Amino acid sequence: MKSMMLVVLGNTEISTVPGISVAGATPELTKLTPPADAEYLFYEKPKIIDAIPVTPGGHPTPAIITKAAKELADFPLIIVRGGTYLAPLVPHVHISDVVGRDFRKERALPEAREIVERAELFGEQLNKLGLKEVVIGESTPGGTTTAQAVLWALGYEAKTSSASPDNPQNLKAQVIEEGFRRAGIKKGDFASKPLEALEEFGDPMMAAVIGISRGFEGEVVLAGGTQMLAIAGLLRAMGEDLGRFMVATTRWVASDGSSTFKETAKDIGIIFYSADLDFSKSRFKGLRDYERGYVKEGVGAGGATWLAVKKGFTAGDVAEKVDELYERLMRIGG
User: Fold this and answer.
1) 201-211 pLDDT tens trace
2) Which of 82, 85, 264, 109 shows the shortest CA–CA distance to 201?
3) Contact predicate 250/256, CB 8 Å
4) d(C-alpha 112, C-alpha 176), whole Å
5) Backbone angles phi, psi at 133, to 5 degrees
6) Structural domains of the chain ordered from first start
7) What is the CA radius of gyration of the chain?
8) CA 299 → CA 9, 159, 194, 200, 302, distances in Å?
9) What is the model's pTM?
10) Rounded Cα distance, 120 and 285, in Å
């Protein structure tokens, strides 16, 4: 076994700020999105809620892409609970049940170091499986805002992506600036203090991914968009050599004009793969809307496609499988 995929689940109170996240039909439902995403990867529909996670506009979770790639390429996938309100109803590795706080009011993650240490232990155990590569995805509503806060604290002039075509950059900036005032810092003040940046503004998914990445000695694919760039920035600031790391995302993130994905990746010094998925010919509007800027990435969609492509499938094969899964969902009332 050369490759394994992990999907790390995280929650942050930031996701309940109205307008900040569309990773759930309502701000309150974003609390259930991570375990529901995890369950959908293994079942026909989630167990924790009686529907697939969708945006307020009804666009399906990017877990449908990861599930399609997994069904095609049959790679091993393990769920990791980095810190969520509820545990998923599937077998999983438990790192913590700590949820990130609203960093406008208090430190987001005082437990960051403990989460990193526990996750490192898990990463060290993965070394014993003979793996060459670990692909790490995430499901963390509100995570692009915590990621942007961390990137700013580290000194990067970054704009993160969004699951909405109307990226709420003004709202993100306002929320982050409130957090910076609370912490008494300005951009770049934590450039040499990555753990402090994580404690003040991060989320438990970030801490878990950092720990796993540091414990595992092989190649690491950070499967996601701008959230994974924040993790790469933290790892670099912690002294990690990014030569064994890569970010795997989708072309929807890489070409997102409202974010600075390519520029920030270059600034951090990490290479990236962009899955050339195309849903423009899908039979379903919910999927065709991905081409209009909805959803874009999540649950390791780009990394799962990377694994499928390495097994000999094409991005077109993955897109066809997504259509098939969506049709199955419609049949069972997803």
Assistant:
1) 999 999 999 99
2) 109
3) no
4) 19
5) -145, 140
6) 3-331 (3.40.50.10210)
7) 18
8) 9, 20, 24, 24, 9
9) 0.96
10) 42
